[in-house]
């Protein structure tokens, strides 16, 4: 967990101190949790300062996630002198009801048909893919 706090130090200048503390509390709780992650379950796993109402305030606050992700990437994970791959993946989470923001019908490969739910698209930067592949191959040979 100390590694997470170290990584989050580069985010401190980009957030208010209140939002930064809330982000730490929520992140540490989510990394410790098992099972479904809801605001109620997060509040149960947090220590002091993680009440349900505090979580509501945190999730209502406006955060520039692009700027935060770029700050982490630039400070800890990106070497501009190496090959960098951009990988994308889409996933669909099924959802009943119609009050959730963004709910629609999206194709799910698990069900092989469109299902009601929410679709998420993620992009990842992969630095040094050749080194990653070579290390993976070496590890497989050792097993």
Strand content: 15-25%
Shape: globular
| Mean pLDDT over the full residue set | 78
> What is the rounded Rg?
19 Å
Strand order of the largest sheet: 1-3-2
Number of domains: 2
Summing up helix and strand content along with how strands pair, one would put the structural category as alpha+beta
The biggest beta sheet reads: 3 strands, antiparallel
Helix content: 40-55%
Q: Distance between the terminal alpha carbons, to the nearest Å?
A: 29 Å
List how many beta strands DSSP finds.
3
**SSE order:** HHHHHEEEH
| Quaternary structure of the protein | single chain
* Spans where pLDDT lies below 50 across 5 or more residues: none
How many distinct helices?
6
Summarize this, please?
By secondary structure, this protein is α+β, with helices and mostly antiparallel strands.
Note down, in words, how this protein is organized:
- The protein is an alpha+beta fold and 143 residues long.
- The protein has two domains: 1-77, no CATH class; 82-143, no CATH class.
- 46% of the residues lie in helices and 22% in strands.
- It has a three-stranded antiparallel β-sheet, with no helix packed on it.
- β2 (104-108) and β3 form a beta hairpin.
- It is globular.
- The model has no long low-confidence stretch (mean pLDDT 78).
């Amino acid at each position: 967990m100390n590694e997470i706090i170290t990584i989050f130090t580069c985010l401190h200048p980009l957030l208010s101190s209140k939002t930064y503390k809330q982000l730490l509390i929520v992140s540490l709780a989510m990394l410790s949790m098992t099972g479904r992650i809801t605001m109620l379950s997060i509040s149960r796993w947090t220590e002091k300062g993680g009440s349900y109402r505090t979580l509501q305030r945190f999730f209502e606050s406006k955060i520039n996630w692009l700027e935060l992700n770029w700050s982490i990437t630039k400070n800890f994970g990106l070497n501009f002198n190496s090959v960098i791959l951009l990988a994308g993946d889409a996933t669909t989470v099924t959802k009943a009801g119609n009050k959730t923001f963004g709910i629609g019908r999206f194709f799910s490969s698990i069900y092989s048909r469109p299902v009601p739910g929410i679709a998420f698209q993620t992009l990842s930067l992969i630095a040094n893919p050749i080194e990653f592949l070579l290390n993976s191959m070496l590890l497989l040979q050792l097993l």
